[in-house]
């Protein structure tokens, strides 16, 4: 499968969100990555349901929602109502991960589990068969524009090995500090989806950067 690109709207111009989403609609982006933060699970607050609601009316790309919040299971119906394609919950935020993953799928969404940089992939041994995607954080969640954590490449490889060994087709998405150089290394290690925030939106030609990430 050709890899997918999911630009993160966190780095977009929030005064002109409609224009930014229309640019993504016309671009080679596969999904739009949306970062929801609660100021508790991560030390920052981003945006919430009112923004997701309006985005759904403009976006022609599937919405990849990344919840950096405690107790994400409380909001499965609300996220489903925004028309989200994929709902990612953090491993570290879910006491009953299997129940949460099942509920996300019952609500009609693809289910993703996200790992913080310090959480080892082997903790997924008994849940990976039930998830559609694993989202590996290659920075500590909470902010855009941070430095890529180099160990994420080895972690991607370890996860890919686990997926292959089990004969699964679980997707691997990587999020944080992605650019042409880190993106290439992640793809070689087995990543399927690259999230990129600042690298896309802070460039003079975001559409071209997305096209070039797609060609890596
Ligand atoms: C960070 C978010 C990311 C963020 C990535 O907590 O999960 O999606 O937008 O931003 P960059 O690509 O700038 O590291
Ligand atoms: Zn994210």
Mean pLDDT: 98
CATH architecture: Alpha-Beta Barrel
Tally of individual domains: 1
For the largest beta-sheet, the strand count, sense and barrel status come to: 8 strands, parallel
% residues in beta strands: 15-25%
- Order of neighbouring strands in the sheet with most strands: 1-8-7-6-5-4-3-2
Order of helices and strands: EHEHEHEHEEHEHEHH
CATH class: Alpha Beta
CATH fold title: TIM Barrel
Q: Supply the helix-strand structural class.
A: alpha/beta
Kindly report the name of the CATH homologous superfamily. Answer: Aldolase class I
Helicity, in percent?
25-40%
Bound molecules: D-xylitol-5-phosphate, zinc ion
Give the gist of this structure.
This protein has 216 residues and is an alpha/beta fold. Helices cover 34% and strands 19% of the residues. The chain has one domain: Aldolase class I (TIM Barrel).
Q: Keywords, please?
A:
single chain, 216 residues, alpha/beta, TIM Barrel, 8 strands, 34% helix, binds D-xylitol-5-phosphate, binds zinc ion
Provide the fold topology.
Layout: E1 4-7, H1 17-26, E2 32-37, H2 49-58, E3 63-68, H3 76-81, E4 86-90, H4 97-106, E5 110-115, E6 133-137, H5 152-165, E7 171-175, H6 180-189, E8 193-196, H7 198-201, H8 206-214
Parallel strand pairs: 1-8, 2-3, 3-4, 4-5, 5-6, 6-7, 7-8
Helix pairs in contact: 5-6
């Amino acid at each position: 499968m050709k890899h997918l690109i999911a630009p993160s709207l966190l780095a977009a111009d929030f005064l002109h969100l409609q224009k930014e989403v229309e640019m993504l609609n016309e671009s080679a982006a596969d999904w739009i990555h949306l970062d929801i933060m609660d100021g508790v699970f991560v030390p920052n607050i981003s945006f919430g349901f009112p923004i997701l609601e309006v985005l759904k009316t403009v976006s022609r790309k599937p919405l990849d929602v990344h919840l950096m919040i405690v107790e994400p299971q409380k909001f499965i119906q609300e996220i489903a109502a925004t028309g989200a394609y994929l709902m990612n919950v953090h491993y570290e935020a879910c006491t009953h991960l299997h129940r949460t993953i099942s509920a996300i799928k019952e609500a009609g969404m693809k289910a993703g589990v996200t790992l913080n940089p310090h959480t080892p992939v082997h903790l997924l041994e008994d849940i990976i068969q039930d998830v559609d995607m694993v989202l590996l954080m290659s920075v500590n969640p909470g902010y855009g524009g941070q430095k890529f954590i180099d160990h994420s490449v080895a972690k991607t490889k370890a996860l890919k090995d686990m997926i292959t060994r089990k004969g699964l087709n679980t997707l691997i998405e990587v999020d944080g500090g992605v650019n042409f150089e880190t993106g290439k290394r992640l793809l070689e290690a087995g990543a399927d989806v690259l999230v990129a925030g600042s690298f896309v939106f802070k460039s003079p030609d975001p559409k071209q950067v997305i096209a070039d990430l797609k060609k890596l």
